[in-house]
Design goal:
The protein has helices at residues 3-37, 53-60, 69-77, 88-92, 109-116, 135-143, 177-187, 201-211, 227-241, 255-264, 275-284; strands spanning 40-41, 67-68, 103-104, 125-129, 148-153, 162-163, 167-171, 190-195, 215-224, 285-292, 299-305. The protein is an alpha/beta fold.
Length: 307
């Protein structure tokens, strides 16, 4: 097809879609095409085989690894005069990734390897909630070579850096029940769910209530970065108790305490997790394990569902 024929075909296609789907859907397709053309195509990206999970985290720049490559790019390399890297694509393809100056990451790598390794080569569905620009999603894509990955964030898709045939991006407000249930109805169920979104007691427990039921038997539900929430609750509670005062807040329990109650199958009262939600978790939960790393905020919990 020559250039003239190509343009003629595209024009014909434009009016065909306009007639059958309306101007709104036409504009959506045009916008999607424009934004997708600027995304990093992971299906075409060369990535060295047999990279470890931590190597992938460092390469793509998520703080889940031992080193935080994204912040190095943002603070030291982005818009640097005479800099070597013009964009994030060039940053991903940098030589010797470990030779740069980094701050420490949260280093969830050993924990993820422990709980995910047995699923690594299986054809599974992975859901990550709170993906930002998508650097951890890109890492998961190569760590799980046969997985479909569902990436969710409140940001619109143009903020997501990547595309692949094995990635679906969805813009969802995780505190909006209607938006959440619409997504769940269309896309469940999942073998792995990684919750890295709001990092609040309300957000974490509301997301657990809505998404834990979508986890397949034998699946793994991971919750990241809750320690800073717990520290605030715990210190405030102790400060008041030292003077004989009561803690008058909506969420008096730390998430660590909630995970302990789930592990022990001990009922507790909560503003969001109602008795029926807690009983469902008790009945379907095989075990719950909590880990803390050396980084001050490094905290991660795993809820493993019964097979």
């Amino acid at each position: 097809m020559n250039n003239y024929e190509s343009k003629k075909y595209l024009l014909h296609r434009f009016f065909y879609v306009l007639k059958n789907e309306g101007i709104f859907n036409v504009l959506k397709k045009v916008i999607k095409t424009i934004f997708d053309s600027n995304k990093i195509d992971l299906d075409l990206l060369y990535v060295e085989k047999n990279l470890s999970l931590d190597d992938l985290f460092i390469k793509f720049g998520t703080d889940k690894g031992s080193l935080d490559g994204k912040k190095t790019y943002d603070f030291l390399e982005k818009n640097k005069k005479g800099g070597k890297f013009k964009n994030y694509y060039e940053w991903i393809n940098r030589d010797n990734p470990k030779s740069f100056n980094y701050q420490f990451g949260l280093n969830f790598t050993p924990f993820y390897e422990k709980y995910f390794n047995h699923l690594r080569n299986k054809s599974i569905k992975i859901l990550e909630l709170g993906v930002a620009n998508g650097h951890s999603v890109a890492s998961w894509l190569y760590y799980f070579p046969n997985a479909m990955i569902y990436a969710v964030d409140i940001k619109k898709s143009d903020k997501f850096f990547y595309k692949s045939k094995r990635i679906q991006y969805h813009s969802v407000d995780l505190l909006n029940e209607k938006s959440v249930q619409k997504f769940i109805k269309k896309n469940n169920n999942f073998d792995i769910i990684i919750e890295d979104s709001l990092h609040t007691q309300e957000g974490t427990t509301k997301i657990l209530k809505n998404f834990y039921p979508t986890l397949n038997p034998g699946g793994v539900y991971a919750i990241e970065d809750f320690n800073h929430i717990d520290i605030i609750i715990d210190k405030t509670k102790k400060f008041n108790e030292a003077s004989g005062k009561s803690l008058m807040v909506k969420f008096p329990l730390t998430l660590h305490e909630i995970f302990q109650f789930i592990s022990q199958k001990k009922m507790f009262k909560h503003a969001i997790l109602k008795e029926e939600n807690i009983k469902y978790i008790f009945d379907t939960n095989n075990r719950t394990e909590v880990h803390y790393g050396e980084h001050p905020w490094s905290s991660i919990a795993f809820l493993i569902k019964n097979s």
